Amino acid sequence: MELNEFIENFADQFDETDPSEIKADTVFKELDEWSSLVALSVIAMVDEEYEVTIKGDEIRNSETVEDLFNAIKAKA
Amino acid sequence: MYNPYSLEGKTILVTGASSGIGRATAIECSKLGAKVIVTARNAERLKETLDALEGEGHQMICFDLNESDKLDEFVAQLSVIQGLVSNAGTNKMSPVTFIKEEDLKEVYQVNTFSPILLLRMLLKKKKLEKESSVVFTSSLSGIGTVGTGNGVYASSKGALSMFVKVAALELANKKIRVNAVCPGMIQTQMIQEGAVSEQLAEGLADYPLGRYGEPKDVAFAIIYLLSGASCWVTGTNMVIDGGLTIR
């Protein structure tokens, strides 16, 4: 599991946000488009792409995209 | 003592009785004088429900309702009942883009197919006495108040809520009543595990009564529908939602 690829997949869950806005240190909950639907999409994407089941907790406890990446990596 | 909601003299089968709304309903039914048959998949938690029941003559049967080829065996061993609380349910949150066929099949099996097939088998084996009451646990989402990520769950409950109407119509000649309860967000394990915490926090502000529901809030509605007090009520989807759908 690789960070840049994860960032790409993560950015894919947004419709309006330009992918270039999303980097490893982006505080994703501060993005205008962040919503519970995007959160659910991220959970579903992680399940599909990485076969890791995450819950609301992992999302709540992560600040940046990289934090979330690390949380998922720890469960992989 | 005068109590039109008494369940004395009734035997009531409760599915999904190992936790949440099912457990609360089983306990309250026993307190109102019913003999309760509790069923669920998890034996350990089901036993906890059994131990929490008041009075004598209750029974627990550990069974997976989704094993439809064993359903007739399960029903055959039951005594005749006067009430069914078809409550076992499951949830899978998934945005439309990510819905998987296997999730659809699993959720529909538990929430839609098994409840319908259980009622069918109870009727076929003549286990539901005349004037019985059948109560399904549906959901607000089953009658059109939905949230994002709810497609699989809401559509499974929607099917159940409409089935209630047909069953009510067909069974009216036996004076068997068929209703559903449609709760808003209830504090149960199923919800805690399934929902995204952001959703829970956002959602609370929409409830005029200022809190999410407790399993007991739904149990009391189910008891009304089981009791003789509701003898002229059939085919309804009763909303229990702390006022959520007012707005």
Q: What does the model show?
A:
Chain A is mainly α and 76 residues long. The radius of gyration of chain A is 11 Å and the shape is globular. Helices cover 53% and strands 0% of the residues of chain A. Chain A starts with a helix and ends with a helix. Chain B has a single domain, classed as 3-Layer(aba) Sandwich (Rossmann fold). Chain B has a seven-stranded parallel beta sheet, sandwiched between helices. The termini of chain B are far apart. The A-B interface holds A 35-37, 39-41, 43-45, 47-48, 55-57, 59-60 and B 93-95, 97-98, 147-149, 193, 195-200, 202.
Strand-helix topology:
The complex is a heterodimer of chains A (76) and B (247).
Chain A (H helix, E strand, L loop, with lengths): L2 H9 L24 H15 L5 H5 L4 H11 L1
Chain B lengths: L10 E5 L4 H12 L3 E6 L2 H10 L6 E4 L8 H6 L4 E6 L14 H24 L3 E10 L13 H21 L5 E7 L5 H6 L2 H8 L10 H12 L10 E4 L7
Parallel strand pairs in B: 1-2, 1-4, 2-3, 4-5, 5-6, 6-7
Helix pairs in contact in B: 1-8, 4-5
Summarize the structure.
With 76 residues, chain A is mainly alpha-helical. In chain A, 53% of the residues lie in helices and 0% in strands. Chain A has a single domain, classed as ACP-like (Non-ribosomal Peptide Synthetase Peptidyl Carrier Protein, Chain A, Orthogonal Bundle).
Please name the CATH architecture of chain B: 3-Layer(aba) Sandwich
What radius of gyration of chain B results from the CA coordinates? 17 Å
Outline of chain B = globular
CATH class of chain A: Mainly Alpha
Instruction: Work out the oligomeric state of the chains in this entry.
Output: heterodimer
Distance between the termini of chain A: 9 Å
pLDDT < 50 runs, ≥5 residues of chain B: none
Largest sheet of chain B: 7 strands, parallel
The helix tally of chain B amounts to 8
Helix percentage range of chain B:
40-55%
CATH superfamily of chain A: ACP-like
Contiguous runs where pLDDT drops below 50 for at least 5 residues of chain A: none
* Annotation field: number of helices of chain A: 4
Largest interface: A-B, 16 and 16 residues
Main beta sheet of chain A: strand number and arrangement? none
The secondary structure category of chain A is: mainly alpha
* Mean pLDDT across every amino acid position of chain A: 92
- Total number of domains of chain B: 1
Beta strand count of chain A: 0
Class by SSE composition of chain B: alpha/beta
Helix-residue proportion of chain A: 40-55%
